[in-house]
Amino acid sequence: MAGFGGDSWLRDHETCIRLSAEIMEKINERNDLQRNGKSHSRVSAKVRTLLKKFTEDVESLQVKLNRAVSTYQLTQNEGDRRQMLIDELSTKGRQLEDTFSNQSRYTAATDRTGLISSSTSGFGQDLWEEESEQTRGLSATEIRSQQLQAIEEQDRGLEALSSVISRQKQMGQDIGNELDEHNEIIDDINTHIGHTDQRLVKETKHIRRVSKKAEDCTYLVIIVGLLIAIVVIIAIPTS
Fold first, then answer.
1. Cα(182)–Cα(185) distance, rounded to whole angstroms?
2. 8, 30, 143, 153 from 148: Cα distances, Å
3. Of the candidates 207, 31, 201, which has an alpha carbon nearest to the alpha carbon of residue 127?
4. Averaged over 150-179, what is the pLDDT?
5. ∠ CA(129), CA(144), CA(10), 5° rounding?
6. pLDDT digits (tens, 9 = 90+) for 53-70
7. Integer distance in angstroms from the first to the last C-alpha of the chain?
8. Which ranges constitute the DSSP H helices of the chain?
9. Predicted local distance difference test score (pLDDT) of residue 159
């Protein structure tokens, strides 16, 4: 299904929704066969297999969500929203199992009821809830057309969301590249500063050596001057 971008969790969630609708159709088929006195064991076995797969898929969604939340791949709000979707799928699964095990709940209008209940895409709608004004008076074909239109609208919304996410991802990559360039510049500056510090230390040591030598020369000149003065004094005869 188009519009999910790279989010496999949303694709798996949509697969669960479609699987629940398929299970509902199989249950209705089983009930029709039973009412007409025909064998329905093959369809019943198929329903049991689909129900097991539905349960496993919902559990897989929960595991993936827990992993994504624990590794901070999702925001808190998005994690809570997806957890709500999983809860609604779990409720849908229990309703399907109850429907399958309790045959007396369905009448001759179960096909239409199944379409109406599946029109909510599995989000917690009671299978025997009173029919809404939007579907009252519509045929099964019209209801199915209405469902397909709703799915197309969801697709368009998801495509728009995917486009926004893609742009944000590109912006994040651009910012990351700029940060890498700035880090390289900072590393170069730090390298130059290190070289400059080494040169300063070297020159400081050189200046200290020169200063020490200059002090030694000064003392030597003073000593020589004193010796000359002593010699002059001694050489001058006293009167």
1. 5
2. 22, 24, 9, 9
3. 31
4. 82
5. 80
6. 999 999 999 999 999 999
7. 129
8. 8-35, 41-70, 76-101, 110-118, 140-235
9. 80
pTM: 0.41
For residue 63 the two structure tokens come to: 């595991």
The structure tokens listed for 203 are 């020159």
DSSP state of 23: H
Calpha distance 13→19 (Å, rounded):
10
CA atoms of 235 and 52, how far apart (whole Å):
127
Q: Quick check: 16 and 33 in contact, CB under 8 A? A: no
- How far apart CA 44 and CA 50 sit, in angstroms, is 10
Structure tokens at 174: 């651009």
What are the φ and ψ backbone dihedral angles of 204, each rounded to 5 degrees? Answer: -60, -45
Residue pair 129/117 in contact (Cβ under 8 Å)? The answer is yes
- Torsion-angle region of residue 76: left (phi > 0), alpha (psi -120 to 50) or beta? alpha
